[in-house]
Specification:
Helix content is 24%, strand content 15%.
Length: 96
């Protein structure tokens, strides 16, 4: 039995099907957390404030102004990848 057959077997009603589809769509709409560096100047890119939760695919370097797309899917620049170190304060980078 294939993965699709297993998935279909778990859906018995139209309401269950719609709920499953909505769950999968929500997972696809969530931005992928990534550790991002500008391809031009190599500065670290962190999405903060509104951009930390807003779905977007294009990023702009706050250091040199370069705009780039690290992936086709929506992404978000993070200090740490989820599950690896998601507690505590982000590292302090000295100015300059």
């Amino acid at each position: 039995m294939s993965a699709i057959d297993n998935w279909r077997a778990g859906v018995r009603t139209e309401a269950e099907f719609r709920a499953r589809v909505a769950e999968l769509e929500a997972k696809l709409a969530a931005p992928i957390p990534m550790i991002l560096h500008c391809p031009e100047c190599s500065e670290r890119h962190i999405d903060e404030g509104e951009f930390a939760t807003r779905v977007h695919a294009t990023h702009a370097c706050q250091h040199c102004g370069t705009c780039w797309r690290p992936a086709i899917e929506p992404t978000v620049g993070v200090w740490f990848l989820p599950g690896l170190k998601n507690t505590g304060d982000p590292p302090r980078v000295p100015p300059g």
